[in-house]
Write a structure and sequence with these properties.
This is Peptidase S8 family domain. This protein is of the alpha/beta class. The protein contains ten helices and 18 strands. Strand 10, helix 5 and strand 11 form a beta-alpha-beta unit.
């Protein structure tokens, strides 16, 4: 079957839905990674249109709203002007022609992105706060993330959740045909940890309780998505002045595989706009069986902090990935086992485990640091995160600099 026009997503969504036995790695579409040493965008647009006869849209076409593939109509290609990347949905023979053209770009397949596998857990409520809030010293911090914009790119958010009825929330969905409503629950859980406050009994489970929440729905209600949706979300968050960008999502990486250039371009763009980015290291390991997997993509990018998961005894989560590849280091660790947080209604709360749960802890703590140092650059906040972390008697390839700790 031929790849669809970019604006016709039924085929794509059907083919990237998680399957029990076979989860695809690629969407069937491709990125053209343009040469950053010269201004290739206009030349590439002309090449796509005149040489290959493609209908081309660009992110510059979307002035009043972020790019959404539902609005691309019959476009064959979408050029991300700010990133120097073009997404194309064309026949395989045309892709071969592009690869052989030698026209100043690389051609790489677009990845399918997933929520890391969740791990069931038991409730962890104790002494009026979750163990993660307690051990990261969030309760002792005078900061709440006030006025700091925090973006969480995930499965969306349950905007009806009663714990957030007084909060400032900005939402956008990049998933074709799906509003921002989180019918999965994963995104609501991550936002609860990063930016939530207390449950109906007054138990504290969220870190940056006064942050301005930016919800970018980049994964479907089935928990999967196309890489371009994540790139759109990253650019949207950066252009809206978000200081923190949290991504509890990823694609598996093979041993020896390098980081994804498209993600790295988006991360560098976000950094240039003042945003610090963190992503889940991944849940593909089975340490108890001696099986270790590399840090997932996009967490393996140099410009993105990779977050590992530890339990309440400060031991590495059995599932947490390891720094195996040279370009995929683990930067820092956070609570990721038995993490209690908000969930889509009517469940309201759920306790689960994963590096997905650890990542929003670091995001929330970064927001506290941005409140403490409002004029700081992302590099300065990253340095504060590293300096303030609690050293652990564990290898850095497993936990990086140690446990993330809130500022005093």
């Amino acid at each position: 079957m031929q790849p669809p026009k970019l604006g016709r997503q039924t085929f794509l969504k059907d083919n990237i839905a998680p399957a029990a036995s076979n989860t695809p790695r690629y969407t069937g579409r491709y990125f053209l990674i343009l040469d950053k040493n010269s201004n290739e965008v206009l030349e590439t647009i002309r090449l796509l249109e005149k040489r290959w006869g493609l209908s081309v849209a660009t992110t510059a076409d979307f002035i009043t709203m972020p790019p959404n593939e539902n609005l691309l109509k019959d476009a064959d290609a979408l050029v991300f002007n700010e990133l120097g990347i073009a997404l194309v949905g064309v026949e395989e023979d045309k892709v071969v022609q592009m690869k052989l053209s030698g026209s100043g770009f690389m051609v790489v397949p677009e990845k399918v992105v997933y929520i890391p596998d969740e791990v069931s857990a038991d409730n962890d409520i104790n002494n009026g706060a979750t163990w993660g809030i307690d051990i990261t010293k969030v309760l002792h911090s005078p900061y709440t993330g006030a006025a700091v914009k925090v973006a969480v790119l995930d499965t969306g958010f349950d905007t009806t959740h009663p714990d957030f009825k007084e909060r400032e929330i900005t939402t956008t969905s990049f998933v074709p045909d799906e509003p921002v409503d989180d019918l999965h629950g994963h995104g609501t859980h991550c936002i609860g940890t990063a930016c939530g406050s207390v449950n109906e009994q007054g138990t504290r489970y969220g870190v940056a309780s006064d942050a301005h929440i930016y919800v970018g729905k980049v994964l479907s209600n089935q928990g999967s998505g196309a890489q371009s949706w994540i790139l759109n979300g990253m650019a949207w968050a950066a252009n809206n002045g978000c200081k923190v960008l949290s991504m509890s999502l990823g694609s598996p990486v093979s041993e020896g595989e390098s980081y994804d250039i498209a993600y790295e371009r988006a991360a560098q763009f976000a950094l240039s706009k003042g945003a610090l980015i963190m992503a889940a290291a991944g849940n593909d390991s089975q340490r108890s069986k001696g099986l270790f997997s590399p840090v997932s993509s996009p967490a393996d990018c140099p410009s993105i902090l990779a977050v590992a998961a530890v339990d309440s005894e400060l031991q590495v989560g059995d599932f947490s990935n390891r720094a195996i590849n040279p370009s995929g280091l683990v930067d820092i660790a956070a609570p990721g086992v038995n993490v209690y947080s908000s969930w889509s209604m009517p469940a309201r709360y759920r306790t689960i485990s994963g590096t997905s749960m650890a990542t929003p802890y670091v995001a929330g703590i970064a927001a506290l640091f941005f409140e403490k140092y409002p004029d700081a650059t992302p590099a300065m906040i990253e340095e504060e995160l590293r300096k303030n972390a609690r050293a652990l008697p564990l290898p850095p390839e497993d936990v990086g600099v140690g446990l993330s700790i809130a500022p005093k």
